[in-house]
Amino acid sequence: MNKSLRDYKSDFYVFDANTSLVYMDSAATTLRPKKVVDALSDYSKYHHANVHRGAYKLSYEATQCYDLSRKEIKKFIGGNKDGELIFTYGATDSINLLMRSFIDMEFLGMGDSIVLSIYEHHSNLVPWQYLAQKTGATLKYIYDFDDLSVIDENTKIVSVTLMSNATGFRTPIQTLVDKSREVGAYIIGDGAQIIGHEKIDVSDLDLDFFVFSGHKMFGPTGIGGLYGKKNILEKLMPYRFGGDMIEYVKEQSSTYDEIPGKFEAGTPNIEGVVGLLSAIEYMKLVGLKEISEHVSCLRDYARVELEKLNFVSIIESGNQSGPIISFQIQDVHPHDVASILDNSHIAVRAGHHCAQPLMKYLNIQGTTRISFQIYNSYEDIDQFIEALKTVRSWLGYGT
Amino acid sequence: MIYTDVIMEYSKDDTFKKKLSHSTHHEHGHNPSCGDDLELELIIEDNLIKEAAFTGSGCAISMASTAMMCELITGETVDKAKQKVSAFLNLIKSEVEESDVEELLEDALILGNIKHMPARVKCAVLAWRTLAEVLN
């Protein structure tokens, strides 16, 4: 018997305006809670000011809010006094920051290796290709997590997602941290996909770096974070230069601010931070455990229903996959599946999901992907299944 | 919806989906964002397109569009084919009316509806862009 699920659609404005929407693409971006929209609006209307520590009340309050938000968000991800949270424009931006810093520091060279998994999103792949090209280091991949021999004494960086956005596969991050420690490599965890529906404790995991994006956890776009251990962040070169990341500026040279300021040049995305904080407050209100269980129930239900359809093949993703299912329909290209489902107001994603190397490794051209969040229901899945049954006949194939 | 009987028939039509034993022109076309991938082959003699064929894979829209295009240009002069390509691309960009290009495009006119589905435009124009590369 399926566990009864609460209906959270009324927490989101989009369902007020669009009652028939079945949104199953939260892996691409999550919808905006009313709470977050209202907080953003409130900030814009009444509280906006630059946070450059202006000597007037409005600026002082904005600065307070910004600094407090950093503390709260850091706490939310399990950060401790040995680490710091840098605000960035998102996970991709965070990874580029690290990559550029590593180049500037001449941290790697010929003979060294950077290790990724084959499950990585392009954002945690393409930057490292560039790093390898620039430094002469070698880029290597983990294909099977039972064999981590690719992480060895030459490995300087291990950067792996905590959950594949394409298949929902959950990587054994603790094992990867332990192996990285053994060889003395930095371990970077890409939390973009997992953070919207699971409790993350970066201190517990002992990650050297953790990256995430606000818009995948009910927050606005254009904001994200790079959490890193202070003793490492202090060694890194800044990625962006300009106002706000400096201490003293002379005509020919400057001294840089301490962390986190060192990495936050220019006026920050203040409303992004406001929105992110509000998103976290929403997640705490609903409860992380509730979100996790809700999406797990939906994933299990969807899986059972999809397995009943003989023209569907699900892309396997290990024992403990997250709330994401990638599948293929016999004879039908994912794009056609998505277009036909769109006709029934069902939003799914089709294609390679920014994971072309993974698709190549799995020997597939692309998939249709569904992903769940707190606003989804069993009824959503039922509607999706019914629409799916019509797809093949739309394209002139028998049932 | 673009998935009309006509489109569906063309997407499954194998008449032009084959490898030519010899071709005078060929071009590869692909949409990296979605995986539509095709190899277009032509036999052009005395300024006439004697045969057009393609191999590859992709969504129903891209396959139908390619088949329709091959049918349209087979037996035409290179200049006429170029006109048809322009007509199609202009139709998609809404730079011409359907009535302006009806005669030139024949059955392929129906693909013009894809402009109402912006996410699928790339699928529909892939073959035509590829052909434009070959002919120009």
Can I get a quick summary?
With 399 residues, chain A is α/β, with parallel strands linked by helices. Chain A has helices spanning 13-17, 34-47, 57-76, 91-104, 126-135, 173-183, 202-205, 230-233, 270-286, 288-307, 334-342, 356-361, 378-394, and strands at residues 22-23, 83-88, 113-117, 138-142, 155-161, 186-190, 209-213, 224-229, 246-249, 254-256, 312-314, 324-329, 346-347, 349-351, 367-371.
Draw up the topology in text:
The complex is a heterodimer of chains A (399) and B (136).
Chain A: H1 13-17, E1 22-23, H2 34-47, H3 57-76, E2 83-88, H4 91-104, E3 113-117, H5 126-135, E4 138-142, E5 155-161, H6 173-183, E6 186-190, H7 202-205, E7 209-213, E8 224-229, H8 230-233, E9 246-249, E10 254-256, H9 270-286, H10 288-307, E11 312-314, E12 324-329, H11 334-342, E13 346-347, E14 349-351, H12 356-361, E15 367-371, H13 378-394
Parallel strand pairs in A: 1-13, 3-4, 3-5, 5-6, 6-7
Antiparallel strand pairs in A: 2-8, 7-8, 9-10, 11-12, 12-15, 14-15
Helix pairs in contact in A: 2-9, 3-9, 4-5, 9-10, 10-13, 11-13
Chain B: H1 5-12, E1 25-31, E2 36-45, E3 48-57, H2 60-73, H3 78-92, H4 98-105, H5 121-135
Antiparallel strand pairs in B: 1-2, 2-3
Helix pairs in contact in B: 1-2, 2-5, 3-4, 3-5
Structural description of this entry:
- The complex is a heterodimer of chains A (399) and B (136).
- Chain A is an alpha/beta fold.
- Chain A is built from 13 helices and 15 strands.
- The model of chain B has no long low-confidence stretch (mean pLDDT 92).
- The longest helix of chain B has 15 residues.
- Chain B is built from five helices and three strands; from the N terminus they run αβββαααα.
- In chain B, a hairpin with a 4-residue loop joins strand 1 and strand 2.
- Chain B has a three-stranded antiparallel β-sheet, with helices on one face.
- Chains A and B meet through helix 11 of A and helix 1 of B.
